[in-house]
Specification:
Blueprint: H1 2-36, E1 39-42, E2 46-52, E3 55-60, E4 64-67, E5 73-79, E6 83-86, E7 90-93, E8 99-110, H2 113-119, H3 123-143, H4 147-151, H5 162-170, H6 175-179, H7 188-204, E9 208-220, H8 222-292, H9 296-312, H10 330-335
Helix pairs in contact: 3-7
Length: 336
């Protein structure tokens, strides 16, 4: 065991310096190649601008292995992908003097790396410059058009068919309300084209291609929101009142139909009851006639019974003034 340790110590003394020198040489070669290599690799999503002492010498736009002058050329990497510019929400006036909040968005890419590097150097500076140019273009276009042009893209609401008009009227919207919508000469998509057209030249001079540029969101400023919400609430209440009125009319109509049908049923029932009672009375009279009309004694008994029924119907508190010749009084005379 001790002999092995002595062998290891002896090996370190003999070859330790050589191993350290080899490691140092490998590290030096790696650093040299990284610093002074004549080649560099460009990815699919990258562009490269080669500068010599701060001045642009050339550029590379295709992915792969590229050549450079070691220690003299500097490779500046730029993005090849489409970039996003999402501006801050800004307050702009429209042509009809309405103050609105505009949130614009744009997509851009580098189409001339050398010009881009000379003008802006990197994407951070590019975004700062885009803030100024695109915000100015947004303000210019918004201020030249009315509010309706910013929120609508066609005159479709002014050219509705009869079926759609009928559905809207059922929702409480009248023809007069629909007629108040102005005719558009330009719409939101046209404004997007105008905004893009307004910045194309300036951005091309910086090596930037604007892919699209449009308004993402529009809103009223806080001072106007309350009046807008109040208007929306009033419109909803108007529609709700229309529903209530339709419901009340429908209820009254149904109640009227019920009353009419009830009266018809009652009239029909009363008519049938009177017919039945008439038939019953006729049948009873026929039975009475057959029963009491057999001889003189039965007829006298029938008359007696009828008069007794009439006498019973006289109230106890009533006073009658009857002629002595009246047939109604003859029983009293016989009783006497």
């Amino acid at each position: 065991m001790s002999s092995q340790k002595e062998t290891i110590k002896e090996f370190k003394k003999t070859h330790g310096k050589k191993i350290g020198i080899v490691i140092f040489l490998i590290a030096a070669v790696v650093i040299f190649l990284a610093t002074f290599s004549p080649f560099y690799i460009l990815q699919e999503t990258e562009l490269a601008v080669i500068t010599q002492f701060g001045k642009v010498r050339t550029s590379a736009t295709t992915a792969g292995l590229h050549f450079k002058v070691p220690a003299i050329d500097k490779v500046n990497i730029l993005p090849k992908k489409i970039q996003e510019w999402d501006g801050e929400v800004k307050q702009f006036p429209t042509y009809d003097k309405r103050m609105i909040l505009v949130d614009a968005i744009a997509r851009w890419r580098i189409n001339n790396p050398e010009l881009f590097f000379e003008s802006l150097t990197n994407t951070t500076n590019a975004l700062l410059r885009l803030d100024d140019i695109l915000d100015a273009a947004s303000r210019q276009v918004v201020s030249q058009h009315q509010f309706e042009s910013l929120v609508r893209d066609s005159n479709r609401i002014n050219n509705l068919d009869s079926k759609t008009m009928a559905l809207l009227m059922q929702q409480g919207i009248s023809e007069e309300d629909l007629s108040h919508f102005p005719q558009l000469e330009v719409g939101r998509s046209v404004l997007a084209s105008e905004m893009k057209k307004a910045v194309v030249t300036d951005l091309n001079n910086m090596g930037i291609e604007i892919v699209n540029f449009y308004i993402k969101k529009i809103n009223y400023i806080d001072d106007n929101l309350k009046s807008v919400f109040d208007s929306m609430i009033a419109e909803r209440k108007k529609i709700a009142q229309t529903y209530r009125s339709e419901g009340d009319n429908y209820r009254e109509k149904k109640f009227g139909e019920i009353d009419k049908r009830t009266k018809e049923i009652m009239a029909e029932a009363q008519m049938k009851s009177k017919l039945i009672m008439g038939e019953a009375d006729a049948k009873a009279a026929s039975i009475y006639n057959n029963a009491y009309n057999k001889n003189a004694s039965t007829r006298d008994f029938y008359e007696f019974m009828k008069k007794m029924e009439m006498y019973k119907k006289i109230p106890d508190t009533a006073s009658l003034v009857i002629s002595t010749d009246s047939e109604f009084f003859d029983l009293f005379k016989k009783y006497k």
